[in-house]
Amino acid sequence: MRILPDPIVDARDPQRWWPHPALQAQWWADNYPVEHPLEPHLRQPTKNSAEPVDPVDAVHVHFGFEHLSVAEVEDFVAALQERHIPLVVTVHDVDNPHLALPEQQADHRRRLGVLLAAAQCILTLSRGAQEEIERRYGRTPTVVAHPPIVPNPQA
User: Are 121 and 79 in contact (CB under 8 A)?
Assistant: First the structure.
């Protein structure tokens, strides 16, 4: 598998985090026409490049979708489905630690629910998260245990 490079959105600060434009359905419409979504040799150059775009085997979402509305997530998922592009979702946080208000968490849960309902593969980092995803969303993710970040003082 080859990982496609991220586009540089801000040339003044190319390392700055930014929401990936591929989370927007319009990005897929602009770059991967439905007529020939998976056959790069049949695709015409897009408005964003002089060359046909690289093929996409799967889209893997970890996080960075909290700025989207539920409707935008639904549109993103529909764009992938129209193009027969599998969605892989890794759930790092069942509840988003960066969202403080209950209504923000409720929106996060709805967005995550849309992604998980559409995902062909779901990954998470712990058995506890797996159980919570099963309880909330009725999907059983594969656990890929996260290695320790901080050394265990008792080891």
Answer: no
Beta-strand pair 121-124/142-143: parallel
Query: For residue range 74-101, what is the model confidence (pLDDT) as tens digits?
Result: 999 999 999 999 999 999 989 988 888 9
**What residue numbers bound the domain in which 64 lies?**
55-143
Return d(Cα 10, Cα 70) in angstroms, integer.
26
Residue 20 resides in a domain: no
The answer to whether position 4 is within a domain reads no
CATH number for the domain that contains residue 134: 3.40.50
Q: One-letter amino acid identity for 24?
A: Q
* Residue of 82 and 55 predicted with greater confidence: 82
What does the mean pLDDT of the chain come to? 85
pTM for the model? 0.81
Q: Is 23 inside a domain boundary?
A: no
